[in-house]
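Here we describe the complex-level prediction in full. Unlike the single-chain runs in Section 2.1, the two entities below were treated as one system.
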Amino acid sequence: MLKLFRWGGLTTLIEREIYRFTNVITQTVIAPVISSSLFIFIFGFALGKSIETMGGVPYLVYIVPGLMALYLIESSYNNSSSSLFLSRWSNYIQELLVTPLAYMDLVIAIIVGCLVRGIVVLLGVYCVASCFANIPISNFFLLVYFVLTIVVIFSCIGIVAALISEKFEHMAMFSSFVITPFVYLGGVFTSLSIVPPLMAKITRMNPFFYMVDGVRYAMLGSSDSPILINFTLVTVMAVVLFTTVVWLFKIGYKIRS
Amino acid sequence: MSIALSITNFTKYYGSFKAVDDLCLEIHEGEFFGFLGPNGAGKSSTLHSITGLSNFHHGEIRVFGYDVKANYKQSRSMIGLAPQEINFDPFLNAEQILFYTGGYYGLSRKVAKERAEELLRQFNLLDSRKLGYKKLSGGMKRRLLIARALVHEPKILILDEPTAGVDLELRYQLWDYLKKLNQKGVTILLTTHYIEEAERLCGRIGIINHGKLIACEEKETLIQQMNRDTLLIQVRESIQTLPEKIQKYDVTLQEDGKHLVFREEKSTLNDILKAIQSENIFIERIELDPATLEDVFAHLTKANIDTGGR
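The structure predicted for the assembly as a whole is:
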């Protein structure tokens, strides 16, 4: 069985990616878990007492899948964008480019690094939430699928942001003006059934909503949008973004002169 | 002897700017080859294209027969690059840098660990193994760059300004190490601005200017072809202006008026002495400096500038 994990360039690079985020674990894992605890306590436990149920479950239980999706998105985006941008910024990317590693290896290693970090953060959020309520998982395999696709989508978006950005400020702008508003307005805290029709319409145009909604379906067994639509949209987004990123690495966009 | 590196009709553009123009070059296995040129001549563009740091669309580059584009995994496995710029992983210490690099080249965990240990010892970095690269001195960083290039025991080592900014003692140590490495059979391609470095280490020299290879010969042949020595003549009485008979030569009169520096072909030396004597100038001392690689380099690159790089 161990022979399946042959030591090679790809596994080394994956190990390095994991080492990178564990080296700054306070920032990459502990901080998001603490921040999610605050959300759970304030919105779910304290404020949630005044909201009876949402989507047929207690409010605390309702927001946990949304928070898990939110932190999965943030950790995937932050991990891939900072890893690649720092590699470009410090010229360390050159060390990798002269090795026999294939461009596909570079992409896969970054995504696997994001996946590991995302799962660690996800487990942290789940454990904190479980201290306050019983959090169900309705369909484990569907949850795994959505976790995987969300990681692929946002690690690829992070890679594109890191390739486009020329300075740290660009990265921060992308995160503040694109990722954060879309995620927070993606149905993390409320069901579409209780928001005004215009707001519901706008939310349905937000692609991030379908990821949050998909995770919610996998955990609670109910969602605002049909699961087939959620499933199809995240699959298409993951395939398109992954293909784009692989192509960008193949042509050496911003990494080879 | 097999061909370690073969470059055929290689042309590299940056936008519309032609950085390298139809370069053809062959380096044989076991050679210590000096690739010289002024700043912006096309050296780094060539090295980057060999190693995979640059894309190129014209020409062909092969490393031990492997095309650097079609068979990049094989070709890159055979190359070790010590770049000019420091480009270490900011999250790793010196030992980890070597260990992980070994892994990227497919070495097993055990072998990568052993190679890292061995190289840390060889390059006198054992005491600094746990330090991040930012805490290393300039000389240590240079040594670590070369050590990293050697982790996977490459057949061809490419050194881009390996001794830039290091003190004389370390430079001599590195030269000694590189000579021994070459004697063990490792092919070395060196680019440097220290012409003395190339003269001491390299067997064959290629000079590139404005993207074109303007010379590629054995070092001795190149110097012989130069055929221009430096003749220093000290005269007794100070001279204000150069006599007409002397003006036709490549000569400089130093500020004190007593030293004439000629840079001329050996065959003209006798005529120069006659011309001086015919002007009734009394010669006190004569010094003859044979041409060096530096003279060749200066002469060729200057001539190339004079002809507009054509």
